[in-house]
Amino acid sequence: MALDTDTVRRIARLARIHVEDAALAPLADELNNILGWIEQLDEVDTDGVDPMTSVVEMVQRLRADEMNDGDIQEDVLANAPDPADGFFTVPKVVE
Question: Which residues of the chain have pLDDT under 70?
Answer without folding.
Answer: none
